[in-house]
Amino acid sequence: GNTSDPAALESLLEQIDYIENRFAWQRFQHSRALRMRGSQAAPYRQRLSLHQQIITAQQQGATAQVQALRDALRELEELPASGSEAQSEGGVLQQLRATLAPKQLVLKYQACGSRLYCFGIAADTLWVQHLPVAAHWPQAVERFWADIRRQASVALQGARLGRQLLPQAIDNYQELIIVPGASLANLPFQALSHRGDYLLSTHTISYAPHLIFIGAGSAQPILESKPASLVLAPIGAQARAAAEGLAVRAATDRLRGAAAEGLSVAQNLAATLLDENTATKPRVLAALPQAEWVHVATHAVYDSAAPNLSYLQLAAGDRLYLEEVYGLSMQAKLVLLSACQTATSRPQSNRLQAFHRAFFQAGVPSVVAGLWELPDQATQQVVEQFYAELAQGRSAADALRHAQLACLARTDGAYAHPFFWAGLIVQGDTKVVPATRKTKRWMWLFGLAGVLLLGAAIILWRRAQSRSGRGQALQQIE
To answer: CA dihedral defined by 442, 443, 449, 450, rounded to 10 degrees?
Structure first.
């Protein structure tokens, strides 16, 4: 049932979140601190080099060397206590609730043995509820995710999980921010059934790895150089012929949708485009720390034996390993990973090695990533509509919701299954909006309008002064 002691709940949540987030938040703060020093500073280059040496040693099976390198890395990343780090020890809930809008609700799920609890956090309330889940609910969640991936029927499962996992209190809110925990990390809540329809149809949904990452984008901006947008699309334009919407970005084939998507997004953002010829590892590693907004459209390959050796495919056969992402220090407001399984945290892995968490710890406050092998053509449509919605001034979470609804509403029903539209999720800070060509154009027009209005006001003032002067002169003559 519900517990109504706010002080006890607040204390419990503070302790849980501090235990869970301490390391991740320290890495986030450390990455931003390194960026303040500049991407050419010795500590930044040293940290990235250690991560790269770990990759080489691990590939060679040099276990002792890997451990020695990790020890050196831990020593390098030790930070003195700071105000930002101290935040994770207390006051997180008060600060979070102060930033929540009246129609926003945070749902933090916490497993305790076979039981599952849901904490509800809003601007004016705080509660916890023991959820009525079945005895084998983790297996049911995994089966739902697996059935979506193979495009099986999931209507009954989605309805059952919706009844078990979604508190009735959500009907009082329009936007849900979900902190799923390890057991629900792969669950697309937007595909659950709520009141006879997908939850996506009634709520804007975003995610966060920990409470402290909600609104992390409000941290002090880092502007080492003039910010720019970056698009990585190392996928050939001459893709093989494939059934529309059925090619997936986990494969090693060359995908039409990803190539077209990269070009379209680069034009929309007025971004630097690194394609199949230019997206080499040296250029990518040099460009990532400078970018304000990053879009990645490529293959992602997951290594189940060594998750930190999972990688994003680059040009010329190069790879950006997950281990290397942990070594980056970035100033980007948002990274969109339009690849497969970039947000997936394998249930059998306690380390939750996923690209979205790596980018968080590299200092990025907001990440959009995929939960499974994203269908190529459908994902292109969702992503392009996502940027069109952003250009209208929507938040990242609201823009993704409208883009997914547009995909779901296709009159031919080709993309009705959640596999096609529910794979991308927004995590972390959701308020960021990129400066697209359209928004830049409007900013220029508003600026021009302001100048014209100011000029008109000055002309009218001078005319008024002139009339006043003539009137005074006539009075003196009379």
So the answer is: 160
